[in-house]
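Hello,

I think I submitted the 5'-O-[(L-methionyl)-sulphamoyl]adenosine job twice by accident. Can you confirm which output corresponds to this input? Input:
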Amino acid sequence: MTSYITTPIYYVNAQPHLGHAYTTIVADTYNRFRRLCGESVRFQTGTDEHGDKIVEAAEKEGVTPRQYVDSISAIFRQTWPLLDIEADRYIRTTDGDHIAVVQRILQQVYDRGDIYFDTYRGLYCKGCERYLTEKELVDGKCPDHQKAPELIEEENYFFRMSKYRQQLINHIEQHPEFITPERYRNEVLSLLGEPLADLCISRPKSRLTWGIELPFDTNFVTYVWFDALINYLTGLGYPDEGFRAFWSGCEHLIAKDILKPHAVYWPTMLLSLGLPLYKKLHVHGYWNVDDTKMSKSLGNVVRPRALVERYGIDTVRYFLLREMSFGLDSSFTAELIAGRHNSDLANDLGNLFSRTAAMVQKYRHGRVPEPGRQQPEDARLREAAESMLRLYLENMAQFRFHLALQAVWEFIGLANKYIVDNEPWVLAKEERFSVRLDTVLYTLLESLRLLTLVLQPIMPRAAAKMAAGLGLSLTDLSSFERHGHWGGLAAGAALVEGDVLFPRLAKETSVVVEKTAHPAKEKEKGTQAEGTISFEQFQRLDLRVAEITAAERIEGSERLYKLVVRAPEERTVVAGIARYYSAAELVGKKVVIVANLKPVKLMGVLSQGMVLAAREKSTAGERLVLTAVDGDIAAGSGVA
Ligand code: MSP
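Support: Only one job matched these inputs. Its output is below.
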C-alpha cells in the first residue's frame, strides 16, 4: 500500500501563519502515521507562485515577481522544519518540471477537444483568483474577502468542465469517502446539483504576464488554479508511469475555503485526462484567534515561529490536533494552549513518565523488571491500553485526531490512577511485595512504551525523548503491527535518565500576535520617548460614556456579546466579556467606549467601537472588569 498526502500549495502573497501551519502539521502527522502503518509514504507541500495576487504583492514591495516569490517561498520552506515537518518534496509552481507538466497537460486537454475559445463576462474576485457566481455573493460581495468582485469581459480559453459534471456526481455518490467530512461532500453534491459553467483557464497577456504560457497560444498565460492543481501530479514525476504507484494512494488535505477548486475543477481535469481520480479529499475548518478571523488589518495574525518560541514544537502540534474537531472551526486562545500544555502535557503525560521513571530508578536501579503474575488491576490497564490502541488507529485513519488523542489521554488518566491505586512506594517498603512491585512497574513502563509508539506522529520530538528514556531506539517503535502489542518491553533493559518532558509554563500569557509595523507610528518614534504618546495623539482617541441598552450572545462564540449602546447615538459594539457578565447585568450599565475605532466585523457582526475593561491576569486565570463612571452622567459625554 502507498500513501501520498498533500497540502495546498500556499500563495506567497502572505507569510506562513497558524492556518497554514495547521494544515501542514496535520499532513506531516498523517504521513508519519501511515509510515507506522507499514505503508510506503510520500508527502508534498509547496508554494503557488503565479497570478494577479502575486504580481500585486511584488509591486507593493517594489521588487520583481521573481525576486518576490523567491524570498517568500524560502520563508515557507524554512518554517516547516521549525515545526518538525518533513516533506519529501517542496514544490514551487515556478519549478521547471512543473511548468513543463502544466504545458503538456494543457496540450493533452486541448487535443482532446476539451478546450475552446470564447468571450466571457463574469464577476471576478482577485482574492479567490476565480470568477464567482451571483449565488456565491453575500450583499454583492465575496464572503471570504469582503470585496465586491470586478465585472470583467474578455476573450479567453475555456475548459469543458460541464461535460464531466454527471460523471463526477456518479463518482462522489459511489465513493462515500471521496470527500470527508460528510458535510463537505453534501456541499459539493449540492453545488453540482446546479448547472455547472465551463472553467475559464487563461488570462490574456495584456492583463497578466506572470504565468505559464499556453502551449497553443502564446498570447495567453494559464489561469493560476489550472496551473496550481497540477502540482499534485508534477510532484510524482508525471507523465512518467511511475507516478501511478503513489497516485493510487493520494489524499489531499485542504481547508473549506478551497473546496470548489479541489472537489470540482480538479476531478473534472483528471477525468478529461483519462486519469483515475485522487483517493480522498479531507476538508478542515478555519482557525480563528480569540473568536475573531485572523487578519493583518486586525493585527491578530499568529505566526508559527512565535508559537514555537513560546510553547515549544510538541505543544503546538499537540494543541492544534487536540483542539480542532476536524471539519469544524476552532478558536485559538493563549489560555487554551497554555491550559493544554500544563494539564495534558506537563501534568498528565509528563508526570506519568517522570514518576514511573523515578520509581524504576529508585527501586530497581533503572532496569526494566521482570513482571510477575498479572492481577486483575494489571489486566484492566493492559485491556485499556489495547482498547486505546484500537480507538487511536481507527480515528487517526479517519482524520479524527481529536478523538484519537482523547482516547490516548483517557488511557493516560487510567495509568496515573493505577499508580495511586497500587501505591508502589508502599510495596517498596517490604521485601515480600517485591514481585508485585516488579509487575506494577513493568505494567507502567509497558504502558509508556505503547504511549510513545502512538504519540510519535503527533509529537515526534517528545516521543523520541520518551523512547530514549525507556532505553528504546526508534527502530523499536517503527510499526504498529510489530510493536503495537502488550509485552514488547524486554526485562533487564536499562532506562536512561533525561530532562523533564514538558516544563510547566510559568503563567498565563496573551496570544502571540504579529506586531504590524505601522508606518505612521514609526515616524513618530524618532521624536518622542519610547513607550510614551503625545497629548495630540491622546486627543485623537474619541472616548465616550455609553449606555448599554441591549446585550445578546453571538452565536458560535463563547466570549462575545453583541451590545447595543447609546453614545449618544445608537451603535453596535462587540465585546469579549461573555465569560464575566450576564446579559441581564449589562443592560443599563454606563461604560466607556473608544468611539472612533475603525469599525470591524467580528463573527459577522459589525463592531463600531470598543468597550474598555480592566484585565487582571494571574496563575488562577484571567478576570475582566468593565470600566465604569463614578456617578450619573449623560450617555455620550466625552472622557478626557
Ligand atoms: N494557492 C491556493 C491553493 C492551491 S492548491 C492547488 C491557496 N493558497 S492559500 O495560501 O490561500 O492557502 C489556503 C490554505 O491555507 C487553506 O486551504 C488552509 O489549508 C490554510 N489556511 C489558511 N488560513 C487558514 C485558517 N485560518 N485556518 C485553517 N487553515 C487555513 O488557497
